[in-house]
């Protein structure tokens, strides 16, 4: 792609503060205006796709409930598998525990 430098400047003024800061930080110490357009777009797409995926994975995790006929061990294993995608970091075990409490059905309480 051959993109005029003016187009890059214009585009960077329209992406919003959070995205602009992320792009600048990603390419530091190089100036973002020295980067080719397709490289800028690639970084922005990766940023938003990752953000969407983590958010989606966390929603899926939070909505997971045990069905009445589901084995407890299967429910817990599924929760652990879902949690592994959520980037909970050091709070992973607490989050799994909390979701077990929330997601267990009334017949188990």
Percent strand: under 5%
Mean pLDDT score: 85
Helix and strand composition category: mainly alpha
Order of helices and strands: HHHHH
List low-pLDDT spans.
Answer: none
Number of domains: 1
Number of helices: 5
Instruction: Report how far apart the termini are.
Output: 61 Å
Instruction: Indicate the radius of gyration in whole angstroms.
Output: 21 Å
The best one-word shape is: rod-shaped
The major β-sheet equals:
none
Tell me the helix content. Answer: 55-70%
DSSP summary, beta strand count: 0
Protein name: Replication factor C small subunit
Tell me what the structure shows:
66% of the residues lie in helices and 0% in strands. The chain starts with a helix and ends in a 6-residue tail after the last helix. The longest helix has 27 residues, at 37-63. The chain has one domain. α2 (17-27) crosses α3 (37-63). The chain contains five helices and no strands. It is mainly α and 109 residues long. This is Replication factor C small subunit.
Strand and helix layout:
Layout: H1 5-14, H2 17-27, H3 37-63, H4 72-83, H5 92-103
Helix pairs in contact: 2-3, 4-5
Protein name: Replication factor C small subunit
Short characterization:
It comes from Lygus hesperus (Western plant bug). With 109 residues, this protein is an all-alpha fold.
Feature tags:
109 residues, mainly alpha, 66% helix, 0% strand
